[in-house]
User: Fold this.
Amino acid sequence: MMRTYKAILHGDHVEWLEDSPGNCRSVQVYVTVAEEAAPEQPQERGRAMAEALAELAKRGAFASITDPVAWQRALRADSTAYLTSIPGMKESIVKGLRTPVEKCDKVLRW
Assistant:
């Protein structure tokens, strides 16, 4: 079975970005080069996020939110109401919450 792992290739060194094969022995691999840019460093992402939030604040995007806690609760309630309206979803969520982490899949199969 073939599995896919995200990584960055630095010359002859592979830096795993998320999960790794977890295998210390030598294994055969096939490398596909993605045409997208390498992810930014955390500091760069943080700086970009701060700039985006500053721009939103400058434009008054949050001006109508008088109580941020109540606003966040309402967003969560909307998400929960939507998800639980899907047949079988509530039961699936409860089952997932009761599943020990050790029994969870390490690789998602969408």
Summary: The mean pLDDT is 83. The chain has three helices and two strands.
